[in-house]
Amino acid sequence: MTYIENVFLCMASPLLIAALCMGKRQRKFFLFCLAGMGACLLSAYINTFFSALYRADTFTTTTEIAPVVEEVMKFLPLLFYLLIFEPKREQIKNTAIVIALSFATFENVCYLIQNGAGHFSFIFFRGIGTGAMHVICGAIVGGGLAYVWQRTWLKIAGTCGLLGAAITFHAIYNLLIAYGGAAQYIAYLLPVLILTAGKLIFRSSIQ
Fold it and tell me: Which range among 30-39, 67-76, 198-207 shows the weakest confidence by mean pLDDT?
């Protein structure tokens, strides 16, 4: 059995201490790391609840329930930040990515504890692939919100659309993972390739 609450406490404690010791500007980073890991912890509970409620098997939970639950849970801390602090556009995107990376980190640690770390190549590809997938989803939501929240008439529709896009990408990734075989490794490589292509396009556009 994986006691994810204990894992969370062990990982969160140093971050909380760092947040208390750092200045106001750096404190936000550590708090958003905690928010991302907390969202992952709560997602595990909610996924289990809906899986039991609908008597869903592992495949259904992975491809249909988890993407919705996880993307919504990652969005909630960002929504709180938007409503309370009214951050600048660049801060919105960076915050979304920090939350997504923290979510992915906690998820990977729990996966290692539950399944072991004996197969280095598989763990390596999974860690990078999952991290890149969550970053892309965070960039979709964060980057999009930085635009739509500047326009009142776009806030609700734009937010729903961005969240839907992140959920769809997450679901496709999970579907390929659940399918197994070569599709699984395609899933691990796809987010990395998308991130690389996006970085190259961004660099060429500013030159």
Answer: 198-207
